Amino acid sequence: MVYVGIPKGQADQEEEVLKTIQDGDSDELTIKRFTESREKPGALWHIYAAKDTEKIREFLKKVAEEQGQENPVDHDPIHDQSWYLDRTLRKRLHQEYGVQGWAIVQFLGDVVFIPAGAPHQARTRDAVHNLYSCIKVAEDFVSPEHVKHCFWLTQEFRYLSHTHTNHEDKLQVKNVIYHAVKDAVGILRANESSLSRP
User: Residue limits of the JmjC domain (predicted)?
Assistant: First the structure.
């Protein structure tokens, strides 16, 4: 989070921001960062374990059906990013499916790391109550430990509609694997003579 600003004339809305943070299920230490340390919050994240993805997907489809919405085969309630789980839906997800995530308030200067395949949602203060302006920088990467999971996500994207924003392989996982193997083989060949010594 590289910038969080409070628009002139809106400094008195701290109570509303505090309520948003509390309703977001934030812990006491996070609340103290805002109330006592006077740090500037920019975004509220909810992050879930990758292992719970199918349960969350099933839950979102169920809620959509209850609201009379269609669930087209070439769309995905998680990848479509068309849902925001408010406090009521988060509580219901926990009660019905045993899924509970982590609430993280991102303050100015904070970095939020989201593991591969972990469903997540973020609300900026602008989106919730039109309070604080913020700018964040996001970067995707593939770690060797999560290549398999990233490849699996890429396969999931292939089944989305051709007009879907996530249809393409943005991470270029196959290229990452190819270049990692090519570099490893190059290093092994360059050190072949020293590796063959007893």
Answer: 1-158
